[in-house]
Amino acid sequence: MSRLSVRKTYKLYIGGAFPRSESGRSYPVTSAKGDFLANASLASRKDARDAVVAARKAFAGWSGATPYNRGQILYRVAEMLEGRRAQFADELGGGKRAALERVDAAIDRLVWYAGWSDKIAALHGAANPVAGPYFNLSTPEPTGVVAIVAPADPLLGLVSVVAPVIVTGNTCVVVASEPAPLPSITLAEVLATSDLPGGVVNILTGRQAELAPWLSAHMDVNGLDLTGVADPDLALSCEQAAAENLKRVARPVEEDWSADPGIARMTRFLETKTVWHPIGV
Amino acid sequence: MAIFEYAPAPESRDVVDLRSSYGLFVNGEFVEGSGKPFKTVNPATEETLAEVATATSDDVDRAVQAARKAFGVWSALPGGERAKYLFRIARIIQERARELAVLESLDNGKPIRESRDFDLPQAAAHFFYYAGWADKLEYAGFGTKPLGVAGQVIPWNFPLLMLAWKIAPALACGNTVVLKPAETTPLTALLFADICRQAELPPGVVNIVTGAGETGAAVVAHTDVDKVAFTGSTEVGRIIARTVAGTGKKLTLELGGKAANIVFEDAAIDQAVEGIVNGIFFNQGHVCCAGSRLLVQESIQDELLAALKRRVATLRVGDPLDKNTDVGAVNSAEQLARIRRLSELGESEGAERWSPACELPDRGFWFPPTLFTGVAQSHTIAREEVFGPVLSVLTFRTPAEAVEKANNTPYGLSAGVWTEKGSRILWTAERLRAGVVWANTFNKFDPASPFGGYKESGFGREGGLHGLEAYLDV
C-alpha cells in the first residue's frame, strides 16, 4: 500500500514568520500540465502593508550590518539552497535536467552577489578631488525599502531580482511570480534558515494587479522594481503612483536570467552620500 | 555697535548691454516666440529689465527637432573634439564673467559678491570639469552611449550655475539639449546662447526656450525627448515624474530640502555660527540645500543663540550690486509672499520670531534675516521648505535624538554636523539620510563632488563621476 504524502501549506513570508493571508483567501496553483499543486495564499492590501512595516523595521539593522556580514549571510543562503537542489528541481517541474540547471544557476547567482557586498562601494564610491582644502568622500548607501514585482521565472528570476537589492543593505517586499508562486515560498524557508534577519525579505503570493498598485503608492516604500510586470497599463499606473513620494523606479524589462547580470541591479537602488570636512590644523 | 560705517561700493552695470527684448535660441539662431512675451524685472527695484519671448509647444517642438538633428553630428564627434568646445565655453564664461555676474545679480537679486565669487567661478569650473570627461567616458563605468535629446528645466536661484550643471555633463556625454530657464531669471541663459555662438558650437546642440511652467511642461512631455532633468520644487518634481512615467525617458530630479544643521555642545562656536549663517542666509536662503533647521544641543542653546544673533545683526541687506551686501533681494513678489505667509504661520503656530533691526529699501522684494526659536517638529516652518532667509531653531539632548529629528522629514538633500570629535562626525554622518553632509562646514560645492538627494529630494546625482550616469545609456 503506498503511503499518502503529507502536503505543505504554502503561506506568506512576512517579518521572518509564515502567516496565512489575513484575508483568509487562497488561490489554486497548477502545474504546466494543469494538475493541481497547492492552494497558495492570496495576499491582500493589508498583507502588503504588514510586509512594508516588517521591511522598514528590518532596515536599520540590515543596512547597519557590516558588508562582510551581509555577504556571509547571502553565501549562507546559497549553501542552504544547495542542500535543497532536488526539492527545488522537483518544484520547478519540466525536464529534470533543465530544472537542476536553473537551480544551480540560482545558487551560483547568490554566490556571485554575496561577494559584491564589500566591493560595490569601491566601484560606486569616490574620493572627490575638490578645489579647496576639504576631505570629500562619496559612498553608496541603500535606498531603503524596495518593493519588487518578481518576474515569471520562479526561482532564478526571483533570486536575480532580490539578491542585488538586499546585498547592498536594502530590505524588500516581493510579489512572487503569479502563475508559479510555490518556489518563492520554499525559497522563504531557505531564507528563514540562513541567518537572514526577519523582515529583510518579505514574500507575498497573489495577484500582481491587486498588490503592485498598493506597494507603488505606499509612502514608506522608497524604491519600486517593476521587472515582472507584463501589463503595460499596470506598469504605467504603478509608475505614476510611485511619483507621489518620488520612488526610484525600475521599469519592466524582459531579461535573459542566464546572462551575466552586471551591476546595474545593485546600483539602481543605491543612493550616493557625499561627506565634506575641512582640512586644517 | 557699528565701528566702521560702510560707504556704498556699487558695481557698475555698464558692463551689461541689455537689449529691450530677447527671442528664443533655436538651432543656433535667435528666433521669435509664438507665445505672449513676458517681462523680467530686477527684484531689487521692480524695474523691467527686458521683454522675453514665450515658447509655445510648437516652438518647443522646433527646438527639439533642431536638437535631434544636431544629435547625429554632435554624438558622432570624437570625444576630444566635444571636449574642446566645452573648454572653449568654460574660457568664454571666464572672459565674460563680470558681465554675467552683474546680469545675474540684476535679474536674480543676489549680491554681486556671490554672483562674482561663487556662481560664475563655479559655472566655468563645471564646464571645465566635464570638458575633461568627454574623451574619457570609457573609463567611467557607465558606457559611452549618449541618450539623445535632453530636456532640461532649471530654477531661478542659481540661473547660470544650474544651466552649467545641466548642459556641461549632457554635452560631454554626446547629448544635445533643449533647456528652459526659469521665467523670472532668463537673461544669463540667453547670454549663454551668445557664448555658444562665440564658441562656434554647432547649431542645435544647445537650444534655449524661455517661458513659464507651460513651456517647461512642453519640454518634459515632448515625445522626442530622451532624457529629462529638472531642478526645482518637489511639487513640480512629482508632476514631472508622473508625466515621464511609462515612457522610455530617463529622469533625474533635484528637488527641495529641509536640511538639519546639527550643532553638538563641543562644537567650535564661532565657526559654527559662521556655518549656520552661511547655511541659511547664503543667496537669501533660496537654496534647496539650505540649513533651514538648526538643531542645537540644549546645553549650549543660550550661548549659541546669543552669538548667532550678534552675527546676524551685522549682515548687510540691500542693493545686490553693492559689493558690501551680504543679503540681496528676494527673487520675486510671489516668493516674497510665500516667505511672508510661512513666517506668519510660524508666529501663529507659537514659535518666537526674531530679526535684527534692519532698514529695507522701499521698492523691490525684501525680507530680513529671520530666526524662529521655540520651534516644534510639528510646526509648519520646521516641515515645509521656506526657500528664504528664515531659520527654525530646534533643540536636542542626545546624539540619537539629533539624528532622529534630522531625519524626520520627507526630504533628504543635505545636512550639517558641527562637533570637534571625529568619531561623532562619522557616526552622525553615517546615520543622516541625506545626499550631502557637510561636517564643520556648510554649503560647499564643487564640480568634482556629486550633489543630489535621498527620498523626496529627488534622485540622480549632478557633479563628479556620478553625474555622468544621468546622461549615458547605462
Automatic annotation (TrEMBL), chain A:
Q: Which InterPro entries match?
A: Ald_DH/histidinol_DH, Ald_DH_N, Aldehyde_DH_dom
Q: Which residues form the Aldehyde dehydrogenase domain?
A: 29-249
One Pfam family matching this protein: Aldedh
In its UniProt record, a GO molecular function of this protein is:
oxidoreductase activity
Which positions, given as ranges, span the membrane? none
Q: Which UniProt keywords apply?
A: Oxidoreductase
What is this protein called in UniProt? Aldehyde dehydrogenase family protein
From TrEMBL, chain B:
Residue ranges of the Aldehyde dehydrogenase domain? 30-473
Q: Which domain of life is it from?
A: Bacteria
PROSITE patterns xref list: ALDEHYDE_DEHYDR_GLU (PS00687)
Location of the active site? E254
| Molecular function GO labels | oxidoreductase activity, acting on the aldehyde or oxo group of donors, NAD or NADP as acceptor
- Name the InterPro entries on file: Ald_DH/histidinol_DH (IPR016161), Ald_DH_C (IPR016163), Ald_DH_CS_GLU (IPR029510), Ald_DH_N (IPR016162), Aldehyde_DH_dom (IPR015590)
Q: Which SUPFAM superfamilies match?
A: ALDH-like
UniProt keywords (A-Z) are: Oxidoreductase
Write down the PANTHER family for this protein, in alphabetical order.
ALDEHYDE DEHYDROGENASE-RELATED
Q: Which family does it belong to?
A: Belongs to the aldehyde dehydrogenase family.
Q: What is this protein called?
A: Aldehyde dehydrogenase family protein
* Source species: Nonomuraea terrae
